Protein 1
Amino acid sequence: MMRSVEESLKRLQTDFIDVLYLHIWDDLTPIDEVMRGLDDLVRMGKVNYVAISDTPAWIISKGQTMAELMGEINL
């Protein structure tokens, strides 16, 4: 994900992406790792907003709950 964003920023010749969409959930990567990566991108200023589609609602709900409980991630 990080590499993909970096390559997109270079290709688009910009410093940030307005909305980063995750279109298909990666079943191999733990949800906390995905959420941490998304939060890191937002905190670094490389992404303004995050959106997720084609993902079961329970996964999104679990990720948001984890983020709120950790108190560090504000997506």
Protein 2
Amino acid sequence: MKMKYLIVFALFFAQASAANENKKELDVVVYRSPSCGCCSKWVDHLKENGFNVKDVVTEQVQSIKSQYGVEKEMASCHTALIDGYVVEGHVPANDILKLIETKPKISGISVPGMPVGTPGMEMGDRKDAYDVISFDKDKKYQVFNHYDSGL
């Protein structure tokens, strides 16, 4: 009987360890301007979806974009780093999870601009169609995911 409890405890401990290991992968650093309210809403979206966010408020957001190869075509209002990838703009948490799970050979993903209805850019029921775009250091862009409009 004691052996049965020992096995159950060992399995529980192994699952807890695996969950903690996965949680480490959800550490994200977000660089955003102090004057941008939608950025803090996107940070809240990440936290609500299990990410451990280090929120860096800085006036140097443009230099961060340059440092990590975010071209003008891919730019938005904030830049995040997770698991070796760049996440630019109002990218939904599910797309970030897909990125770190599939580990494609790209630099990162972006929602260029600030489309209405993206996480942090909610405006009632209005939702613009938008794409999450993958990009690499050679300026190769591809649709990573597409979202239809809410109308």
Protein 3
Amino acid sequence: MKKYLLIGFISSLLYTSCKHDSLYEPIDEPPIVDTECDPNTVYFINDVLPIIQSSCAFSGCHGSGSAQDGVDLSTYAGIMQEVQAFDANDSKLYEVIIENDNDDVMPPNPYSRLTTAQILLIKNWINQGAQNNECSDCNTTAVTFAQTISPIIQNNCQGCHSGTAPQGNLSLTNYTQVKTIADNGKLLGTINHSNGFVPMPYNQPQLSDCKIDQITSWVNAGSPNN
């Protein structure tokens, strides 16, 4: 445990701004795994955790190394400290993402607010019981930008690559911007953690094999706006 805490402390010193803290922190209980994804269920690992990692759990905010105001949102256990299962309206996590006061809303300026779709995912996950769950089936044959790629980018990348000061001066908020890095090879290079590329999501776990396969399928098809 001391080793893991030391790693997290060193990481918090090395990485600032939107660079995410290390997630080598207390390990949560293994998630509940469904072999098939129920379209009516919001899954913590698949749907909610990427949003929070990208938009909340970074250095200087609510990552493991900084834990601003004592709030660490890098693990399921930490997130559940801010959640009242089955009651989004009584959950601090939900309250701050729908806050209308720019001084209190999360994520804070200059980062972009969560989208309506992201807020709804978090709300529904809480109201469904806020389980530590995931699903493992993967469809790589019906991949579209609108239904597959855009949500992946939105939930895993836009926390840093959006707003008035996007990390690396790279914004990924629309099809044209995503297609540019798809066509020049940077998208696949970064998500595959290939040599010569900065691994993305930065200082976070690599995207799941399913998400990488879906993005690869879309890029190999010519990165269509479909």
Protein 4
Amino acid sequence: MTQTKRYGLSKAERLHGGAVDALFLHSKSGVVHPYRYVFKRRAATPEDGAAVSVLFVVPKRNIKRAVGRNLLKRRTREAYRLAKHPLVEAAESKGLHVDIGLIYNTKEILDYKTVSDAVGSILEKIMGRL
């Protein structure tokens, strides 16, 4: 019996609450244009709803209009949803939970292809460091 891939982004997969503070305090980071990313891995617990939790940030300092910020968050979420499966499988196989923060770090609104390539590259780098 094969499992079908779930392409959604459930509430359990979104980082919220005190986990956000912990992510920025005790994490590893890197840069892949146009993103800065931070991630933290830890042993999975039964309370974890998903193997990977993610946070998307587009600072108002860089993109002034809410329309642009929302557009970039939508593009980033879409790229993540489509590229997350290898990372999720790797984390589950190693018994880890991974928290990820993706921070958009440029003043231009870039096209979906650029965003998608960057998110894919970030997920590959994180998978290599698990």
